[in-house]
UniProtKB/TrEMBL annotation:
Species per Swiss-Prot/TrEMBL record: Tetraodon nigroviridis
Any GO BP annotation: rRNA processing
Taxonomic placement: Eukaryota, Metazoa, Chordata, Craniata, Vertebrata
Keywords assigned by UniProt, alphabetized: Nucleus, rRNA processing
Skewed-composition ranges (Basic residues): 1-15
Family of the protein in this entry: Belongs to the UTP11 family.
UniProt name for this protein: Probable U3 small nucleolar RNA-associated protein 11
Length: 202
């Protein structure tokens, strides 16, 4: 043991090679372990870029996922967007607490049935083939008689405009009520499902 220590005391101290004097301005000399870390990081990034390029080339242009429109980027993280329609009003919360899902569903179906199916050709009183035309769109009566009537009474025009505006307003209200009832029904059903799961777990 003492002999080995004596031999070691006579051995030359080995130092790592330092940066040559004319390259001192470049900092410490890079060792192999430093190069290995740098090389591994470089190749990892290159492989990631190659995989992304391949994914972009193989992508179907008609590909669609609902997450594309239902999520947004916040601070670099994808989060699900909160639609304004899903935000419950105080009236919706009150109905949800007091009413049964069957009643809500019945009201929603009633509102949906009350909404007339909108037929653009019937609304414009023209042939279906002429619906896409934005000018020179004759009515069915004009097509049948091949004659254009004179100017209508301004009072009649104003009356018809008021009736049309009222009908649009009523239709908009029914659509809004139907959407709210649908949201309430979904929330009630979700709450019931959660209650059932809790009972099963207990």
């Amino acid at each position: 043991s003492s002999f080995r220590k004596a031999l070691k005391s006579q051995q030359r101290n080995h130092h790592e090679r330092s940066q040559p004097a004319f390259r001192k301005n470049l900092g410490l000399l890079e060792k192999k372990k430093d190069y290995k870390l740098r090389a591994d990081d470089y190749h990892k990034k290159q492989n990631t870029l190659a995989a992304l390029r391949k994914k972009a080339l193989d992508k179907n242009p008609d590909e669609f996922y609902f997450k594309m429109i239902s999520s947004q980027l916040q601070d670099g993280v994808h989060v699900t967007k909160q639609d304004k329609e899903e935000m419950m009003t105080e009236e919706q919360k009150k109905v949800m607490r007091t009413q049964d899902i069957k009643y809500v569903e019945m009201k929603r179906v009633a509102e949906a049935k009350a909404m007339p199916s909108f037929d653009l050709a019937n609304h414009l009183q023209t042939a279906p083939e002429l619906v896409n035309r934005v000018y020179n769109r004759p009515t069915l009566e004009t097509l049948e008689t091949k004659s254009v009537k004179g100017d209508l009474n301004p009072r009649s025009i104003m009356k018809m405009a008021r009736i049309r505006k009222h009908q649009y307003k009523m239709l908009s209200q029914r659509i809004d009520r139907e959407k709210k009832m649908f949201v309430i029904a979904q929330k009630i059903q979700t709450r019931k499902d959660l209650q059932v799961r809790k009972k099963v777990c207990v």
